[in-house]
Amino acid sequence: MLTVDGQSSIKESYSDLLIDESKSTGGIPSKIFFPENADDLISIILKSSQLKQPLRLIGSHTGTTGGAIPNDNEWAISFTRMYHIESVATNPEGEIILKCEPGVTISTISEFLNDAGNSQYKVRGQELLTPGSHFYPPDPTETTAQLGGTVATNASGARSFRFGATRCSIYALSIITPNAETFTLVRGNIVDPRKGFEIITDQGSKIVFPPFSYRSPQTKNASGYFSKAPMDLIDLFIGSEGTLGIFASITVKLQESINIVAGCTFFKTLESAFLFADFLRKENDVLSIEFFDESSLKFIDAYRERMAKPIPEFPENCTQAILWEFAEKETGSFQDKYEIWESFLNSCDSSFDNTWSGMESTEIEKLKRFRHALPESINAAVSSFKNNCPLIRKIGTDTALPAECFSSVYKEYLRLIKKNSLNHAAFGHLGDCHIHINLLPSNEGELNTALDVYDNMMELTIKNGGTISAEHGIGKLKCKYLEKMYGKAKIGEMRAIKQSIDPQWRLNRGAIFEKF
Ligand SMILES: Cc1cc2nc3c(=O)[nH]c(=O)nc-3n(C[C@H](O)[C@H](O)[C@H](O)COP(=O)(O)OP(=O)(O)OC[C@H]3O[C@@H](n4cnc5c(N)ncnc54)[C@H](O)[C@@H]3O)c2cc1C
């Protein structure tokens, strides 16, 4: 197993592992380990437990909230060498399941499924698949993310509108505790948080979780530990941001492939785009409703030359766009819908003439690339601003709101941004009322203004029953807002959960909870 020892070697050769896409900075670990299998992982954790050494878990460090950023002198574990897909099988419910090491990336899973049966992969049970027969529903835009990172943050993607976030596709987790004990959770183990519950490890120890009364909001959510009464025990660990245990293996559920038609439709006003989104939400076979507002289209125009792949010019006078996907398999073909959709689009002053369409998988891929190009370019812009002012970091909302107040709160966000003359780019998962507003300060003065505006947006969100993080998690950067969202007493209950399994608070210190 590769182990890199000493802060100076780490700083010199592994500095890329010390930040994530939030562009915020942390400390330098004293060791970085690159385990190649579960035994390596257990041996590191056992040693860390004997030495009471704090640990930092690093996936592909594409996170945007700093959870994977090490503190000074921690031991860091990178999962890049635990990248195997271990087996394909059928579970008792008849679903096809895929067991993976935590460092497998989302793109490796798609490549494997597109190619299953060919000789490149030698995976036990792969004869249950044929090339392209199945897909893994969560589709976070950043496909270099590792499965472990996406389970730890309960990541979601455009199609979560239809298939739910990562948690909905997780069947089993093998977990290592901070003192190197192990246990496996399979979906279906129902517990009642009102009464508390316990886990018996493979080594025979009992981990006792006290009762807790807080509940996760109904909106899409990745803020704090999941709670519902009753709930599946596995859901407590999904979205726990590496603070409750280390995922050593992850088993996901696959779905049979479906034929997809996709399009990107352009609109002249925000109101007409929102009306079309309301229309799409009522269509059973719509998989995703992704939104790009005026600021995003302007941002793409400004950065068009620097984009890795060419992006066509937008239709004239259009300021907003909705990227949608429709599943043909379930109730018939898209042709059956064409006239109804066209007539609705006409009533919104748009049409299929204002739509980039994707009927073939290569065209759909192009539309997805367009979707991905935006956050990627925003992150590149933040990096270039950071060159001029090192304090600059990404300041982006990840809020989801109840549908009934979404439109009014969103307009209030925009009013605040305009009043403070900030540059921004807004895009995201309109189907779930979950939009990312990226504030783009380019100097220290603007940065301070952006932080104040961000504070106001979080207050507005909490006041209206929304969540402060719907998919990126709390990490190290959003702890104070989590406390505002739940209040001190409920945060105390979450801390008691952490204390039950990690009494020395050695795992991912500073993530979810600022103080330990
Ligand atoms: C361009 C771009 C687009 C993005 N789009 C999306 C999107 O559509 N949806 C979305 O949800 N996010 C998105 N993200 C954010 C990011 O990709 C996700 O948060 C992703 O889940 C992080 O995965 P990672 O492997 O990079 O994890 P990291 O950033 O390395 O870590 C994230 C958290 O997981 C923990 N962790 C990692 N491995 C393990 C393990 N084995 N066991 C326990 N804990 C572990 C870490 O300690 C950390 O707390 C995007 C990011 C970028 C840069």
Provide a descriptive summary of the structure in words.
The structure is a single chain. With 516 residues, the protein is an alpha+beta fold. The protein folds into 4 domains: 2-78, 2-Layer Sandwich (Uridine Diphospho-n-acetylenolpyruvylglucosamine Reductase, domain 2); 85-256, Uridine Diphospho-n-acetylenolpyruvylglucosamine Reductase, domain 3, CATH 3.30.465.10; 258-369, Alpha-Beta Plaits, CATH 3.30.70.2190; 389-473, Alpha-Beta Plaits (2-Layer Sandwich). 32% of the residues lie in helices and 20% in strands. It contains 14 helices and 22 strands. The chain has helices at 7-13, 38-50, 106-115, 147-152, 160-163, 234-237, 270-281, 294-303, 335-347, 361-388, 403-419, 444-463, 479-486, 488-501; strands spanning 2-5, 31-34, 55-58, 75-78, 85-90, 96-100, 134-135, 170-176, 182-186, 190-191, 197-200, 206-209, 231-232, 246-253, 255-256, 260-267, 286-292, 320-327, 355-358, 395-396, 424-429, 434-439. The protein has a 7-stranded antiparallel beta sheet with strand order 19-16-18-17-21-22-20, with helices on both faces. Strands 5-6-14-8-9 form a 5-stranded antiparallel beta sheet. Strands 1-2-4-3 form a 4-stranded mixed beta sheet, with helices on both faces. A hairpin with a 4-residue loop joins strand 21 (424-429) and strand 22. Helix 13 packs across helix 14 (488-501). The radius of gyration is 23 Å and the shape is globular. The two termini are 31 Å apart. Residues 20-21, 57-64, 67-68, 79, 102, 140-142, 145-146, 148-150, 152-153, 155-157, 241-242, 246-247, 375-376, 379, 471-472, 508, 511 line the site of flavin-adenine dinucleotide.
